[in-house]
Write a structure and sequence with these properties.
This protein is of the alpha+beta class. It contains 3 helices and 7 strands. It is globular, with a radius of gyration of 14 Å. The relative contact order is 0.26.
Length: 142
């Protein structure tokens, strides 16, 4: 990775269903600038560790504190001709309250199948399967 690569980090943020469902609920954020639904993520600050950046971005975009779990596949794509690398983790929400902000105006908690359908980008949809696989490997569906 060279200096032209945009470095970012994010999470598939999840929680145990408050309705007693067996599968987890996944947090999606709506970004008005792009009018899309995605996982919480964002650019790293200069010299920032990707894990710390992922936790910071989740807090900034969702108002949620989280515990990072297993790493998920890294996304690589181009943004305006520049390479972008986004490192992802599964992260369990541990508390907090969402307040709409400049970057994120809406937040949804959805079961995995509904989250996959709502996500705008195919690469984000693929992460839902990767997340479920990682959760299963880490001790089964909770």
């Amino acid at each position: 990775m060279d200096d032209t690569t945009i470095r970012a980090a994010g999470c598939v943020l999840w929680r145990r269903s408050p309705y007693g469902a067996e599968s987890p609920e996944i947090c999606l954020v709506h970004r008005p600038r792009y009018d899309d639904w995605s996982h919480p993520k964002g650019k790293l600050k200069h010299g920032e560790d990707a894990r710390a950046g992922a936790v910071r971005e989740v807090l900034e975009e969702t108002g949620m504190a989280c515990d990072l779990g297993p790493s998920l596949p890294t996304a690589h794509y181009l943004v305006e001709g520049r390479p972008k690398e986004v490192r992802y983790w599964a992260a369990e929400a541990t508390g907090g309250v969402f307040a709409p902000n400049r970057e994120v105006d809406r937040l949804l908690w959805l079961p995995p199948a509904a989250a996959r359908e709502r996500l705008t980008q195919p690469r984000d949809r693929d992460l839902v399967g990767d997340f479920l696989d990682a959760l299963h490997r880490a001790g089964g569906e909770r």
